[in-house]
Specification:
The chain is of the alpha/beta class. It has 35 helices and twelve strands. It has an eight-stranded parallel sheet with strand order 3-4-5-6-7-8-11-12. A two-stranded antiparallel sheet has the order 1-2. Strands 9-10 form a two-stranded antiparallel sheet.
């Protein structure tokens, strides 16, 4: 199975479009065999080059099927491997709709994440339906969710009791790639496609180089052309199509075309295809491939109608191929090339690469709406709500993040029509007024005033945050019982490498005193060093005054294995001087706070490194570790001007006893003033440096992690876990290593600290998941945990009881406004 999955990844994800098209034009599958082993070996390093060459031979001789009509060099035969692998993972329910075999869910996730679920699902259904064609009615419905359900009945029944997704970012909460894809495939012929891709972060995906790299625009125009042609051939049954009609592909891919003439040609084809398409109005057709199904109420009412056009097109094309129809044998290579181009463009919208860290994710996240057509921009808000709640709209809850700048528009749109199917205007969701709520989130940014001497860090930004928060409070005050949806909380998200929790301390403490809305904060997700991640979590608790009415998003630093982390990095770190200085001082005093003994060698390192960095950055006072620590504790304080409200003044300072004591330290105040206002301190503090921890760092950090988990548990602070996001951004790599099992042990002892945890999606569209899928992945991970003898660690009853408790926790974590 591993070799077969590797073959799909190579042929439909890694394979360079330039090489594939050259093979396609020559129709030589022998060339494909040669290139296949060269590309596959870079992904599957566990096998030798010789083994990959043997796999390429098996691929050609066995997996790609028999010689058809005497034609051995059928490039389209690569489509066979799709159904070959899918048949081992998928099944159908009693309605003949596709399902994943639960015990194969990880294998499905591994490959479907890369090439897209529909590519495999439709290949499976096409082959499956042909085998059973005498006993099955013709398939007309393609209304399953973007993430396939599985066949674990017990788990499905449990989750139908209701799930709350309390860590979800609204604009990425649905299949963002599909909205971009159908927009491109329908609207880019009359829009400058170059502008659609302007500003995209260029990436290198290919393990082998080619002489010429097709641009995104080349690939997109080629895909628009191919989709239109395949639609005419396999859906409209247009017999006038000739092989020579595909000659324009070479010109498109190599920039040998007049762009205005090409647009006109593609627009003409798209207009012709719209004749029998479903229309919103006489002039608006979201996707020409979605057929007019006015007589089928079930299809019209389903939000999944947005997928039906693309699915029907691919189903008809693949079924023709598996049925060995002459037109499919002739044009099968173009079906393959279309799927390859689609996968290549999908990589800009879905996190599929092997890179970790927030910056890698952010580069994809910024693309999520760039290619969406104006038509779909108007409709996408309802699509997001309905696809998020479609499984169980009267039991599930969506508490989703939204930026303040989008708030008023979003509330207006959703208060009017979010229960209506965007394509048909049919009301499809009932009784969900209390099942959708918003958390307004601020984005961590780089300080734009960093170079200004005498200006406090983030001075203007803090004012902007306060202004936005006060507007939020006004909306909350105006909320009526009947309003839908409601604002229930605030959050801060984004890269935490420069923007520390201190920036938001006053607003969060003020919000706590107002007691109007809930508070959550992203912390410990992305960091230069593990100590830095732990410090971010601690500062969030201290400065933001987090308590039993608040939550932390991710908190991955609490669970990362310190020994594995530092050994992998050879105990070295690359970090800014200011951050390393802060980390050394924080680690020293945090260990003392928790009564953790610091080995002598480690204590000397922390003191000497801090003193050296303090002098290099340029602080004017003589170094004293305690004075500097006191200055750090006061960073969450804020000076109030005259005429401020009593509550604003009351919340100006951190209330912890350690911070109160630090305020009596005059030298600490002088150090703090330099930290906040000196342009020189900011400049030299941002200089990068390299350092190496003593090996003893592992023991100290491990003990601090345990002590912080206990503190969070005792304070009643909840943690929002997002399994797929954490695996892909945080680098945990395996779901059975996820921090949720540290925060909430499966079989806890009475003395173990237990944190209230929930399972969530984060950015469902970018990670190609949904809330049910996240629960299912964690469930299967538990079932696959083994002891040293290869026996399961936990029986089913233990596992389902754990999942039920986490499901209930998610419901409890929701911010509720009376």
């Amino acid at each position: 199975m591993d070799f077969e999955r590797a073959a799909i990844k190579t042929l439909f994800y890694d394979f360079p479009a330039e090489t594939a098209y050259a093979i396609l034009e020559n129709n030589q599958i022998d060339f494909l065999q040669d290139y296949f082993s060269d590309i596959a070996r870079w992904r599957g390093s566990a096998y030798t080059v010789s083994e990959w060459k043997l796999l390429a031979k098996i691929l050609k001789d066995d997996w790609l099927g028999e010689i058809i009509q005497g034609k051995r060099s059928q490039v389209g035969r690569v489509l066979n491997i799709l159904s070959m692998v899918a048949e081992q993972i998928l099944t159908t329910d009693n309605q003949n709709m596709p399902r994943v075999r639960f015990d194969s869910l990880f294998r499905w996730r591994d490959i479907a994440l890369l090439v897209g679920e529909d590519t495999l699902t439709l290949a499976y259904l096409a082959k499956h339906d042909l085998k059973l064609s005498p006993t099955l009615p013709k398939r007309t419905s393609f209304l399953w969710n973007d993430v396939l359900p599985h066949d674990n009945t017990r788990l499905n029944d449990m989750l139908r009791e209701g799930i709350a997704d309390v860590h979800s970012h609204f604009n990425a909460s649905t299949d963002v790639f599909h909205l971009n894809w159908i927009s491109l495939m329908n609207g880019s012929a009359d829009v400058n496609i170059l502008n659609r891709f302007k500003g995209y972060n260029e990436r290198t995906y290919y393990p082998v180089s080619t002489e010429r790299i097709y641009s995104r625009c080349n690939k997109c125009f080629a895909a628009i052309f191919l989709r239109s042609m395949l639609y005419r051939i396999f859906v409209m049954k247009d017999s006038s199509i000739q092989a020579s009609d595909f000659g324009i592909l070479t010109d498109i891919l190599n920039d040998n075309y007049d762009i205005e003439k090409l647009k006109a040609q593609l627009q003409g084809q798209i207009s012709a295809n719209r004749k029998k398409a479903l229309r919103i109005t006489e002039d608006v057709v979201p996707d020409y491939a979605i057929r007019d199904i006015s007589g089928n109420r079930k299809d019209k009412d389903s939000i999944n109608i947005i997928y039906s056009g693309e699915r029907f097109l691919l189903y008809e094309a693949l079924k023709s191929w598996f049925n060995k129809e002459e037109k499919a044998l002739e044009y099968g290579k173009y079906i393959y090339f279309y799927l390859l181009l689609k996968t290549h463009l999908r990589r800009d919208f879905v996190e599929t690469n092997l890179l970790h860290g927030f910056e890698n994710f952010a580069a994809i996240q910024r693309n999520k709406s760039k290619a969406i057509d104006p038509i779909w921009h108007k409709l996408s808000k309802r699509v997001i709500v309905q696809t998020s709640l479609a499984d169980n709209p009267t039991q599930d809850y969506l508490e989703t993040r939204i930026h303040p700048s989008d708030l008023s528009t979003m509330l207006k749109v959703l208060s009017e029509d979010y229960t209506q199917n965007p394509l048909t205007q049919e009301v499809v969701l009932q009784q969900v007024d209390q099942h959708l709520s918003f958390v307004v989130h601020f984005l961590k940014i780089t300080d734009k005033q960093e170079g200004q001497d005498g200006v406090e860090r983030y001075a203007d930004y803090r004012k902007n945050v306060r202004s936005a928060f006060e507007n939020i409070c006004k909306i909350v005050d105006w909320q009526q019982v009947s309003d839908k949806p409601k604002i229930v909380g605030i959050d801060v998200a984004g890269s935490e490498l420069k923007c520390r929790p201190e920036v938001y301390g006053h607003i969060y403490r003020y919000a706590s005193l107002l007691n109007k809305i809930g508070r959550t904060y992203h912390a410990g997700e992305d960091f230069y060093d593990l100590v830095d991640g732990l410090r971010a979590i601690d500062e969030a608790i201290l400065f933001l005054q987090l308590d039993s009415h608040s939550r932390i998003g991710h908190a991955l630093a609490l669970s990362i294995d310190a020994k594995e982390y530092y050994e992998k990095r050879h105990y070295k770190m690359l970090i800014s001087k200011q951050a390393l200085l802060d980390n050394c001082v924080w680690l020293y005093y945090q260990a003392k706070e928790y009564n953790i003994v610091i080995p002598g060698e480690m204590e000397v390192f922390l003191h000497d490194t801090a003193m050296s960095l303090y002098d290099e950055i340029g602080y004017s006072k003589d170094f004293n570790m305690l004075h500097y620590w006191h200055s750090m504790l006061r960073r969450g304080d804020e000076t109030c001007g005259k005429g401020e409200s009593a509550l604003w003044k009351e919340s100006a300072n951190v209330v912890a006893s350690s911070a109160r004591s630090a305020r009596t330290d005059k030298i600490a105040g002088d150090i703090l003033n330099e930290y906040l206002k000196s342009a020189k301190i900011k400049q030299y503090g941002n200089v990068a440096c390299e350092s190496r921890y003593p090996d003893k760092i592992v023991g100290v950090v491990s003990q601090i992690q345990k002590a912080m988990i206990r503190e969070i548990s005792e304070k009643g602070i909840a943690i929002e876990c997002c399994p797929s996001s954490n695996v892909m951004i945080g680098g945990f790599e395996r779901y059975d290593k996820h921090p949720i099992f540290t925060f909430k042990p499966i079989e806890a002892k009475p003395t173990d600290p237990i944190i209230n945890v929930s399972i969530n999606t984060d950015d469902a569209g970018i990670f190609a998941t949904n809330i049910s899928n996240e629960y299912s992945l964690i469930t299967l991970a538990m079932m696959k945990m083994k002891d040293e003898n290869g026996h399961r660690l936990y029986n089913d009853e233990t596992i389902y009881d754990y999942i039920e408790r986490v499901r209930a926790n998610g419901m409890i974590q929701r911010f509720k406004i009376d």
